[in-house]
Amino acid sequence: MANRRSFIKKSLLGTAILAPTISQLSCDAKQSSNVKEGFKPLVLSTWAHGMPANDKAWEVLESTGNVLDAVEQGVKVTELDLSNLSVGLQGLPDREGIATLDASIMLGDGSCGSVGFVRQVKHPISLARKVMENTPHVMLAGEGARQFAISEGFELEDEVLSPRADELFQEWKKTSMYKPIINIENHDTIGMIALGADGKMAGSCTTSGLAYKMHGRIGDSPIIGAGLFVDDEVGAATATGLGESIIRICGSFLIVELMRQGRSPQEACQEAVRRLISKNKNIDDIQAGFIAFNKEGEFGAYAVRAGFNYARHHKGSQELIDATYKL
Ligand code: SD4
């Protein structure tokens, strides 16, 4: 593998154009076993907690056929999962010890809504949906998002950390060193994308963001086009990992646009990772991963480095797949 990679690097250096060659893409694509499969309906979610979330989404999809309800109900399972330290109010807090949440939801017809830096709301994904359905806006943040939650009848939760998050925060305060640990502290956001039997698509993404982030920081997850993008004409993509690196390349939108130009989901995810690596100087500290499908139900995933996996649900079969990776 190292030899193959150094060969690719050398041959790229020998060309005037630094964009990946077709042979590089097809070479990388061979690392994945799912390139040519086509399945519809389909639900994909990031990480292992995507398995129970997909089960819920599938149940909704089967009983109602409604992809929007499916992606909302699916990730709500994760928002309530006390063992998850990167999603929901039980997630690790910011540097001030406060849990602040980001979420977005999108339909393949371009409807979308999101919330960023919101406090005390148990289900930010449902609040994002309310932004989409009940306001003329796409994104509400901070105090405005909290006020909107109250006006929509959401009950605000007490602002106390979960016992585990508090324990880890107290430990972190001893050094207050801000350096996310790859695949640990910047890990576990759920991004879900679903393709209905009728060809309608939707996606959702929800997170407590990076552990020990600066107060007020908003990541990629509520930014339409960065953490999530869905277009019925083409396909859908969602992201996980260091949000700043994903925002810099508008990752999910990029993947959908590459698929529009003819790349497979796998090739598009690989090109997004290549671009992310080239645009982020501190790449040694970064993990990021993408999942995507196209309207035929072909799917793919790719990450900067090892450790990223994703859950797929199709008909009766549910599996957890290790994503291939670049570094
Ligand atoms: C963020 N992308 O706020 C999120 C973190 C994440 O898995 O994905 N964790 O930057």
From TrEMBL:
Transmembrane segments: none annotated. InterPro entries: Ntn_hydrolases_N, Peptidase_T2. SUPFAM superfamilies: N-terminal nucleophile aminohydrolases (Ntn hydrolases) (SSF56235). This is N(4)-(Beta-N-acetylglucosaminyl)-L-asparaginase. It comes from Belliella filtrata.
